[in-house]
Specification:
It is a single chain. This protein is an alpha+beta fold. Among the domains are: about 1-50, Uridine Diphospho-n-acetylenolpyruvylglucosamine Reductase, domain 2; about 170-290, Enolase-like, domain 1 (2-Layer Sandwich). Helices cover about 35% and strands about 25% of the residues. The protein is built from 13 helices and 14 strands. Helix 11 (about 235-245) packs antiparallel against helix 12 (about 260-280). The longest helix has 23 residues, at about 260-280. The radius of gyration is 19 Å and the shape is globular. The model has no long low-confidence stretch (mean pLDDT about 95).
């Protein structure tokens, strides 16, 4: 086994091109190996010391979030909390305090789990993924990136360097909520994110809803914008919940039955839309919204 420490993106890309796998926080890769899910790769390249992969930058095109941003950093970053709050909600729920301090946003995205917490918020907020290799770079939508449970369309030599978010809009709020059985080291039984923009009269001007842990990949709810535009915020939640339950394709496993997940995803979608609309209307709801509105274990 070989282990390389990269201090620049170019060094990391050379190692990836030679067959190495990247490792940052290691909260998925190492745990998976210990549980027998997959053996550790023969060659690893550490990318946690690459300054270029961190930070949040604003420009005319929106916001660039470095792939190495830890969940602890994301959940407290003023730009993310202020304008892209659902991502902060999600990062605040990942694992435990120790997990959040070493686990990264990029690692969560590239793990490809349909139960990932940050996937649904990034989806409703229109995020794209910037991939780079020794031969060049490309930007893809998250729907294009995720191919199935634990799988992405990234080529072996490609590295996720950043996530890009469009400029924040006025009177827009977002929220992520999940059903959980405990408050730490938990994976979403189901999760839902919503982004809601309100018109001047308080009705819904636009809305997006995405779901976690109810399909092979993060699931965007079809037809939700057309169904909710022009409705009052109070009326929007139940409709969104019904559409979420209808379109979900959950499985049964040790943690929940498909029937239970289908019911609960409707409840979570309604609450996500409600919280996002309240934030859009100027109400301050602390991160994570799960704790603020009393969802989850006591």
């Amino acid at each position: 086994m070989s282990f390389t420490i990269a201090t620049t993106v170019d060094e990391a890309l050379v190692a990836l091109g030679a067959g190495a796998r990247p490792i940052a926080g290691g909260t998925d890769l190492v745990v998976g190996a210990r549980h027998g899910k997959a053996a550790l790769p023969a060659d690893l390249v550490a990318i946690d010391r690459i300054d270029e992969l961190g930070g949040v930058e604003l420009d005319s095109a929106g916001v660039r979030v470095g792939a190495l941003m830890s969940h602890a950093e994301v959940m407290t970053d003023p730009v993310i909390v202020g304008s892209y709050t659902a991502i902060a909600d999600a990062s605040a729920l990942v694992g435990s305090p120790s997990t959040r301090h070493v686990g990264t946003l990029g690692g969560n995205v590239m793990n490809g789990s349909p139960a990932m917490d940050t996937g649904a918020p990034l989806t409703v907020l229109g995020a794209t993924a910037e991939l780079r290799s020794v031969t060049g770079g490309r930007t893809v939508s998250l729907d294009e990136l995720w191919a199935g449970p634990g799988r992405t369309t990234a080529n072996p030599g490609e590295l996720l360097v950043a996530l890009h978010l469009p400029p924040a809009r006025d009177r827009c709020g977002s929220a992520y909520v999940r059903l959980e059985y405990r408050r730490a080291m938990e994976i979403a039984v189901v999760g839902a994110a919503a982004a809601v923009t309100l018109a001047a009269d308080g009705t819904v001007a636009s809305v997006a809803v995405a779901l976690a842990a109810v399909a092979p990949t993060i699931l965007s709810v079809d037809g939700v914008n057309e169904a909710l535009v022009g409705r009052t915020a109070a009326a929007a939640g139940p409709v969104a919940g019904a559409l979420a339950s209808e379109q979900a394709a959950p499985i049964s496993d040790l943690r929940a039955s498909d029937r239970y997940r289908r019911h609960c995803i409707g409840v979570m979608a309604k609450r996500a839309v409600d919280a996002a609309a309240r934030r859009a209307d100027g109400e301050s709801i602390a991160v994570p919204v799960n704790r603020s509105i009393g969802i989850g274990a006591a």
